[in-house]
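Weekly puzzle thread! Below is a chain. First person to post its structure in token form gets bragging rights.
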Amino acid sequence: MPRKHLVGSVAAAAVGLVLLSACGTQPQTGASPKVAPAAAQAENQAQAVSLNVAQVNGLGEVLTDQDGMTLYRFDNDTAEPPASTCVDDCAAKWPPVMSTGDVQVAGVDKALVGEVARPDGTQQVTVKGWPVYRFAKDTAPGQAGGQGVGDVWFAVNAQGGKAGQPKPAALTATDIPNFGPALTDEDGFTLYLFTKDSKNPSQSTCDGDCASKWPPVMATGDDISLTGVDPAIVGRVVRSNGAEQVTVGGWPVYRFAKDTEPGQTNGHGVGGTWFAIEAAGCKSSAPVPAPAEAPAEAPADTGSGY
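Winning reply:
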């Protein structure tokens, strides 16, 4: 999204108030001037904001602010379009990270960082569209007391996803040496379709023992990372157990348990029903290996002892 470099208008107004209050008055000797709550808030907001990646026990990588405090996202907000719904008492418990200018980043893709106008007109920092917050009960860096609160608050990671969740699925269009085009997952393993499934409507028929041999690619997070794949043909289908499986071109996609290293294609052509899937959502046109010949049977033992 286009970035705006905003002048800290709230901070400027607060400075103006301080200057006006100084006119015609003399500070008391030996006394510290009192700062009005609004001015103090503006002063805090005027601090330069930075987003950094840190390790938090039990959650892995999370985003932290310039003070090392864990940052969070709120499921009741939206990312497309960005919208912040945490105001008033909610915002007192979950202080929004305010945008006061250019946000510095370390370990975060700057293209994912933006801002959204809050209901009061101030600007809040977003990561991949999600407004980000601190948790008032976190009092020191490394704490993540807000994780899972109400089942709607979660520490946010560098991709804008929920920290501590399973790694999101990824689909990558790959040219596998000595094989050809195929989709691979986040670990580089070849993905497959099953012709006994259906693509219109999408339906997965591989359960039980079948799913042990052909693990379905599950949609475990909010996002599916795509490289060289048209997002319009990527979807999800609800399996018989209620979980969601990734689909490409309508076809549910799987790994093959006997592929033990990235780039292997041992599942291509198995049973005449399993095929590597290409980025367009169709089965690979790579030649299917000929079945291995069964070993010749040993001659029957006649008991003659030669």
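Puzzle host: Confirmed. Bonus trivia for everyone else. The chain has a mean pLDDT of 83.
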